[in-house]
């Protein structure tokens, strides 16, 4: 199988073929999502929430992200493996940012990194891309800044915020980013950004006119009944299925219905 590359994503945008991205944090799911045709597996720092049970993405460490990325890389044959740089691994200065990105690339077999922010992380992006490491940007709702935002609400509202976002998107493209995630912004603004950029945009809560879409795998598969924002479409109800299967197993064990003679040696 031919691997999805940064240039492959670029030509998908030119052809008008939408890019399908999902988050992924482990080997088994990587094999399944990859075989089902997902173009990009994002080892998101949302692992902090959905894998580790933290309230925010802030606590996850670079070592923990590297572990998840190693697991996903072993399972992905066709998909690009893209790894989030965690909070604290790139913000302070560009030399530290480069060192963090180099660790991810050296130790995981991933193909690219993603980091949050605009003008304030431009120098880091320049340094990382100059080292030959593909970088995806991330604007709009950037969860690592949750304590500054105060809520996970819609971003890019109003003319001033919209203009700032478009300006920063162009800066990120100029700095060498191969793509851009836009999170929770008005669909009209995401359409405008997507048209203004040569590089592909990947939306989450950003309408259909992005060049691709991304969802958190557990949300898309319906593994978490509490989380149901407007932008989410659930393609399965795995919470129900897993609960049903687990209850049936527990009941069989309690009633000595498992294992049967055929399942015994
Ligand atoms: O960490 C994550 O899951 C993300 C996506 C939602 C874009 O960054
Ligand atoms: Na993320």
Helix-strand layout with pairing:
Layout: H1 6-15, E1 19-23, H2 27-35, E2 40-43, H3 47-50, H4 62-75, E3 80-84, H5 94-108, E4 112-114, H6 122-130, E5 135-140, H7 146-149, H8 158-174, E6 179-183, H9 187-196, E7 201-204, E8 212-215, H10 217-220, H11 238-254
Parallel strand pairs: 1-2, 1-8, 2-3, 3-4, 4-5, 5-6, 6-7, 7-8
Helix pairs in contact: 2-4, 4-5, 5-6, 8-9
The protein binds 3-methyl-2-oxobutanoic acid (KIV) and sodium ion (NA).
Structure description:
With 265 residues, the chain is α/β, with parallel strands linked by helices. The chain folds into 2 domains: 6-234, Phosphoenolpyruvate-binding domains (TIM Barrel, Alpha-Beta Barrel); 238-265. Helices cover 43% and strands 14% of the residues. The chain has 11 helices and 8 strands. An 8-stranded parallel barrel has the order 1-2-3-4-5-6-7-8, surrounded by 7 helices. Helix 9 links the parallel strand 6 (179-183) and strand 7 (201-204). Helix 2 crosses helix 4, helix 4 runs parallel beside helix 5 and helix 8 packs parallel to helix 9. The longest helix has 17 residues, at 158-174. It is globular, with a radius of gyration of 20 Å. The chain starts with 5 loop residues before the first helix and ends in an 11-residue tail after the last helix. Sodium ion is lined by residues 44-46, 84. Residues 23, 42, 44-46, 84, 181, 183, 204, 214, 216 line the site of 3-methyl-2-oxobutanoic acid (KIV). Pfam families: Pantoate_transf. Catalyzes the reversible reaction in which hydroxymethyl group from 5,10-methylenetetrahydrofolate is transferred onto alpha-ketoisovalerate to form ketopantoate.
């Amino acid at each position: 199988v031919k691997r999805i590359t940064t240039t492959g994503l670029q030509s998908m945008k030119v052809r008008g073929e939408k890019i399908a991205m999902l988050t992924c944090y482990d080997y088994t799911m990587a094999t399944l999502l990859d075989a089902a045709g997902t173009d990009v597996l994002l080892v998101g720092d949302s692992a902090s929430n959905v894998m580790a049970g933290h309230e925010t993405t802030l606590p996850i460490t670079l070592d923990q992200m590297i572990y998840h990325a190693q697991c996903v890389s072993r399972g992905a044959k066709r998909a690009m493996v893209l790894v989030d740089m965690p909070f604290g691994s790139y913000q302070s200065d560009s030399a530290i940012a480069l060192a963090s990105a180099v660790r991810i690339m050296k130790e995981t077999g991933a193909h690219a990194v993603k980091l949050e922010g605009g003008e304030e992380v431009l120098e880091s992006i320049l340094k990382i891309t100059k080292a030959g490491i593909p970088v995806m940007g991330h604007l709009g709702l950037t969860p690592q800044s949750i304590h500054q935002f105060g809520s996970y609400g819609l971003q890019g509202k109003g003319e001033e915020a919209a203009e700032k976002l478009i300006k920063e998107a162009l800066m990120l493209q100029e700095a060498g980013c191969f793509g851009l995630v836009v999170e929770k912004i008005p669909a009209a603004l995401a359409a405008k950004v997507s048209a203004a950029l040569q590089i592909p945009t990947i939306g989450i809560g950003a309408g259909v006119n992005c060049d691709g879409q991304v969802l958190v795998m557990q949300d898309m598969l319906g593994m978490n009944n509490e989380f149901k924002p407007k932008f989410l479409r659930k393609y399965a109800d795995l919470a129900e299925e897993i609960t049903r299967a687990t209850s049936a197993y527990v009941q069989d064990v309690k009633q000595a219905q498992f294992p049967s003679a055929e399942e015994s040696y």
